[in-house]
Amino acid sequence: MYAIPLGDDGARLCPLEPWQAAEFLAHIDRGREFIGRYNGLPDVVTDLASSRAYLTSYAEKTAADTGRICGIRSDGTLVGAVILRTMDTAQGTAEAGCWLEPAAAGRGLVTRAARVLIDWAVEERGIHRVEWWVSSGNAPSIAVARRLGMTREGVLRQSYLYRGERHDQEIWSVLAPEWRAARDA
Q: Nearest to residue 11, comparing CAs of 109, 115, 92?
């Protein structure tokens, strides 16, 4: 299996595949409450079968070139992931996302991993616009969008019903020319 180094602290970005469902479930279990504050993934991945189904859905997206999931590993342990939840190469658009276990937060892992994934999408798959949809209350994810050089485009007021409560969603994005200029600066 390949791994892309994310810096000199040993963190790596690796593919996540259905055969890793048990490890993925253990990861979600370790961060279930933390991840679930703004992300519905812990409500979807509840047992081994649902973990395998989730990873299989991303294997199918990868095969169809419509999405991707990559695990973030620290000291060999799966601690988070970055995704292209959607990817439309004909339109040149993608939506990126992420999550981390609480023990891995605050170390820049998501920012570093997202940079690798977005760079791949822009340079290898010809994506022109990468979006980042985030709950207005999710300050850490908004901070990642800022560090990635994204622009806040607007707020969809009370557009997302999550666990019985309506949330505002912010849409952030970066365009390929902006991405390249910031990366090359």
A: 109
Tokens representing residue 75 in the block: 């000291």
Written as six digits, the tokens of 133 are: 């949809």
Query: How far, in Å, CA of 33 to CA of 16, rounded?
Result: 22
CB-based contact 83:24 (threshold 8 Å):
no
Residue 14: burial class (beta carbons within 10 Å; 0-12, 13-18, 19+): middle
Scan for tokens 């991303």, then name that residue.
58
pLDDT for 1: 58
Stretch 23-34: mean pLDDT: 97
Give the residue-averaged pLDDT of 45-66. Answer: 98
If phi > 0 it is left, if psi is from -120 to 50 it is alpha, else beta; for residue 119 that is alpha
Q: Are residues 109 and 74 in contact, defined by beta-carbon separation less than 8 angstroms?
A: yes
Half-sphere exposure of 49 (CA within 13 A, CB side): 0
Rounded distance between C-alpha atoms, residue 36 and residue 63, angstroms: 28
